[in-house]
UniProtKB/TrEMBL annotation:
UniProt KW keywords: Membrane, Transmembrane, Transmembrane helix
Record-given protein name: Carotenoid biosynthesis protein
Origin: domain of life: Bacteria
UniProt key word ATP-binding: no
InterPro entries: CruF-like (IPR007354)
One Pfam family in the UniProt entry: Caroten_synth
Transmembrane intervals: 28-46, 52-71, 78-100, 120-139, 146-168, 180-199, 211-229
Length: 230
């Protein structure tokens, strides 16, 4: 019978190989995200035909979400239910916002985000999920009480929206009445974001994702940089 101690080096080698493979996958995913966002930034900011690059915005959003899900640990039923609830809630909030003008102010969506239903792009739920999940995971690293983490995550979401708004208006993602972004928009965003983050903290699933920091940072820099060029 073989000595069990002789198997330890093989097990350790297997663990190291698995860790190295996971690291390579992460680097590939980060590279793909950077490629898409840098190409989009250069195309929208400096190309003579930014409309060509706008066509890839829905694809970039779906790619980002797909990669985030791929690096989510333990994709349990609770995690999938969280994804569905946030996407549906985000879409419904936008429908209410469009119809009533009470949540965010008076605005309407353009054609840049693709197919619309009830005057709202279907992909807007994907956007709410990406931002909610990314901000929630980032805040979860902080040693703070749950509600305080939710507040921090909501602030991260609003901070990203502040960078998105000028770019979104310029490229016809949506437009505001009189071309003025109302303060109500950011108040509404904070309120909805806080509710979603409280929900995020209550759902039981792993809140560790090595891709999240880059996803949040690259989106922040993408929209902030484009805003500086306008």
């Amino acid at each position: 019978m073989p000595d069990p101690t002789q198997q330890l080096p093989a097990a350790a080698t297997a663990d190291l190989s698995a860790a190295a493979a996971a690291h390579r996958r992460l680097r590939w995913a980060q590279g793909v995200l950077l490629l898409f966002h840098v190409t989009g930034f250069v195309g929208l900011g400096f190309s003579q035909d930014p409309g060509f690059f706008l066509r890839f915005m829905p694809l970039t959003m779906l790619l980002t979400l797909g990669l985030l899900i791929a690096f989510q640990r333990e994709r349990t039923a609770a995690f999938w239910s969280f994804c569905v609830v946030v996407m549906v809630a985000g879409f419904c909030v936008e429908v209410v916002g469009i119809r009533t003008n009470l949540l965010f102010g008076q605005y309407a969506y353009g054609d840049a985000l693709g197919i619309k239903f009830l005057e709202v792009p279907l992909l807007i739920g994907v956007n709410w999920l990406i931002v909610t999940y990314s901000a929630g995971v980032l805040a979860s690293y902080l040693p703070l009480p749950g509600f305080v983490r939710a507040l921090v995550a909501a602030v991260l979401m609003v901070g990203l929206d502040i960078c998105i708004e000028p770019v979104a208006v310029h490229y016809d993602f949506w437009h505001w009445q009189y071309d003025v972004i109302p303060l109500l928009n950011f108040k509404g965003w904070f309120a909805v974001s806080l509710i979603l983050q409280v929900y995020f903290n209550r759902v039981e699933f792993s809140r560790r994702n090595p891709l999240v920091p880059l996803v949040y940072l690259v989106q922040l820099l993408f929209f902030f940089g484009l805003g500086m060029l306008l």
